[in-house]
Amino acid sequence: MNYSTVLKGLVRVSWLDAAFHTLMAVLLVTGLIVDLLGPWLGGWLHPIRSIAHGYIGAVFVLIFAVYIGSVLGSKKMRMVLTVTNYVDFLFYVVLIITGITVASANRPWIDWFPGLVNVLSPMIWIAPTIHVVVTYVWILFSTIFPGGLLHGLASVYIISHLKKRFKTETKRKT
Question: What's the sign of the alpha-carbon dihedral 42, 45, 50, 54?
């Protein structure tokens, strides 16, 4: 079991889920690269932050809205009703609001929705800090709590272990 297999399975279940989780991972990686390597690699990472990360984030916001709408409009609602998913949802909302505020200097959201200038202007000075802090808190939360990374890794281990065990038992019977 590897990431490719998981992604193929996710695509079979839902393109929207696959797009949502893939963009979330890309945003996490690009954000972490800029934050962690920026001081050592210098200013050439700034375009990644302001352009690539910002516009990928804009696409993510749109997919996030469709994703939440599809979950609310389906029978998958019980999957959303966990504490982990509520907290993840709150983290996403904070990251989206602060991300839009940070990206507003680049003007994609202001060009599309001019009324945001008045709403977001009080946050412009603190939004980058909130965005980074919430990202790291979200990573910690997702790693420690059920439904997060550790739960996912344990699930992959159990599934692969059961798969091997099933293959071994099938070979013994034949």
Answer: negative
Query: Domain ranges in the chain?
Result: 3-136
Q: 61-78: per-residue pLDDT in tens?
A: 888 888 778 777 766 555
Residue recorded with tokens 């609602």: 77
pTM value is 0.62
CA distance 100 to 153: 31
